[in-house]
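Quick one, tokens below. Sequence please?
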């Protein structure tokens, strides 16, 4: 087995051991990348469920600068209605289409003591109605996310991680169709560098979704509105920013689900080892995977 350390990641010379048939262990993930990965996972967990607590305070989303009973600009709403027979039904309305979501959205919990709220209690932090605590938790982890992203970005620019592993080049786009076809057939290649799909998806999350969810969150802050009034204009008003913020959250959740599925299919032990220790085993006979 040959153990090779990437000098660009560690600044150290490669070390070698007798060759074998299992493929090399390479130092794939720098310490800043690993720390940021796990901090982001923790932050996004608390941001998601505390954000749904905040959403429950007004479980409707709008497009535009204003909202309320006098406006017909909602694109999503969750609530409860009473039918002619007196039964209460949970409903979710998406762009004018109404769905019965009793037991999940609008009305949930024990039928004997139902909860009349948009999201069920098991999806919120805290699990009971407490907007103040939800906001404290949300803002704490939001700023932790921002700080982690800033430190990671500086470190990754310095050690070349952004340029080397995340910035899609001509070769990335040229090899993308083949990579999509390989993933569709569950054929995964274990190389030192990220595959085209990994590069593009990680770049979208780090340089599109993260900045978007941070900026739309800031756009909803009255304090930021006073300091950066142009931010509201960029997103078309506070209510539109709130809707974009919610949709970006859904995109991050979708990425997380796909990410976990891919980890399980491609070899969870090898991938988890690389995100804990930095060491990753590549396929036998693989080069540096560039």
């Amino acid at each position: 087995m040959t153990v090779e350390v990437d000098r660009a990641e560690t600044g150290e010379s490669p070390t070698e051991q007798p060759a074998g048939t299992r493929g090399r262990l390479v130092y794939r993930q720098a310490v800043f990348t690993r720390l940021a990965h796990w901090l982001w996972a923790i932050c996004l967990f608390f941001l998601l469920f505390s954000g749904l607590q905040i959403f429950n305070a007004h479980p409707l989303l709008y497009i535009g600068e204003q909202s309320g009973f006098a406006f017909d600009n909602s694109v999503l709403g969750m609530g409860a209605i009473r039918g002619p027979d007196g039964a209460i039904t949970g409903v979710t309305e998406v762009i004018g289409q109404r769905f019965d979501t009793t037991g999940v959205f609008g009305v949930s919990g024990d039928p004997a003591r139902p909860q009349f709220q948009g999201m069920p209690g098991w999806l919120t932090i805290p699990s009971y109605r407490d907007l103040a605590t939800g906001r404290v938790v949300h803002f704490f982890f939001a700023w932790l996310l921002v700080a982690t992203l800033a430190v990671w970005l500086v470190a990754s620019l310095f050690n070349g991680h952004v340029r080397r592993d995340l910035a899609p080049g001509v070769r990335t786009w040229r090899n993308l169709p083949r990579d999509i076809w390989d993933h569709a057939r569950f054929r995964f290649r274990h190389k030192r560098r990220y595959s085209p799909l990994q590069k593009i998806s990680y770049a979208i999350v780090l340089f599109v979704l993260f900045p978007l969810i941070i900026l739309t969150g800031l756009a909803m802050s009255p304090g930021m509105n006073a300091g950066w009034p142009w931010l509201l204009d960029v997103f078309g008003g506070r209510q539109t920013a709130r809707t974009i913020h919610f949709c970006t959250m859904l995109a991050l959740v979708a990425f997380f689900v796909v990410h976990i599925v891919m980890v399980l299919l491609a070899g969870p032990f090898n991938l988890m080892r690389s995100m804990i220790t930095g060491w990753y085993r590549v396929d036998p006979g693989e080069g540096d995977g560039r």
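Residues 1-20 have pLDDT under 50 and may be disordered. The chain has ten helices and nine strands.
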